[in-house]
Design brief:
The longest helix has 13 residues. The protein contains 8 helices and 6 strands; from the N terminus they run H-H-E-H-H-E-E-H-H-E-H-H-E-E. Helix content is 44%, strand content 13%. It folds into 2 domains: 70 residues, Arc Repressor Mutant, subunit A (Orthogonal Bundle), CATH 1.10.10; 101 residues, no CATH class. By secondary structure, the protein is α+β, with helices and mostly antiparallel strands. It starts with a helix and ends in a 12-residue tail after the last strand. The chain is elongated. The strands form 2 sheets. The protein has a 3-stranded antiparallel β-sheet. Strands 4-6-5 form a 3-stranded antiparallel β-sheet. Strand 5 and strand 6 form a beta hairpin.
């Protein structure tokens, strides 16, 4: 079973976490609100939120002294595209099939969804970058450490991949913070 799918099911294998996800699907909540709504102590809710955040299912933003938590629907959609949809299921030979019919990826991915190598040609590199950028949701801000963590899960040369994503105008950066740019601004090689 793939690692993302296993982590996803482990994170949701708790009734309290499912209740929290349901509440966050409607609107953002503070830990205090969630504790009251699911009838748990605040440290217990914080523990459940940490597990959900580790899977990328929940985001948090600070407003004064309160942290507001929300369901990251883009992460759920991405997980669905990469793991749950038949288009991303393993092929008959056990190798991952590329999403969206992009066969270029088949030659570059290991069965566990890691890159074997970074393609040298512009067209193939663009296909890999389009696949990598799906690990980042539009509208979200990512510190460089988080960008590196996500890219290291795909290939050991996170610095090159990070530079390529920025160079192809798929990610932007300022002061060590990165965000995904709209598809229409991607440079040649990153285009569909």
């Amino acid at each position: 079973m793939s690692e993302p799918l296993l982590g996803f099911f482990k994170a949701l294998a708790d009734e309290s976490r499912l209740k929290i996800i349901g509440l966050l699907a409607r609107r953002e909540h503070s830990v205090q609100e969630l504790a009251r709504l699911v009838d748990l102590k605040e440290p217990t809710v914080s523990h459940h939120l940490a597990i959900l955040k580790a899977q990328g299912l929940v985001t948090a933003r600070a407003e004064g002294t309160v942290r507001w938590h929300a369901l990251d629907t883009a992460a759920l959609e991405d997980l669905s595209r990469r793991v749950l949809q038949p288009a991303t299921a393993d092929g008959a030979d056990g190798s991952p099939r590329a999403s969206g019919g992009d066969k270029v990826l088949q030659g570059y991915l290991t069965p566990d969804g890691r890159l074997k190598s970074i393609p040298a040609t512009r067209k193939k590199r663009g296909a890999v970058l389009r696949w990598l950028v799906t690990d980042f949701a539009e509208g979200e801000r990512y510190p460089e450490a988080e960008v590196n963590r996500r890219l290291l899960a795909r290939h050991e040369d996170s610095a090159t991949l990070r530079r390529e994503l920025v160079g192809h105008h798929m990610l932007a950066r300022r002061d060590g913070v990165y965000w995904r740019l709209p598809r229409e601004g991607w440079s040649e090689g990153g285009e569909a």
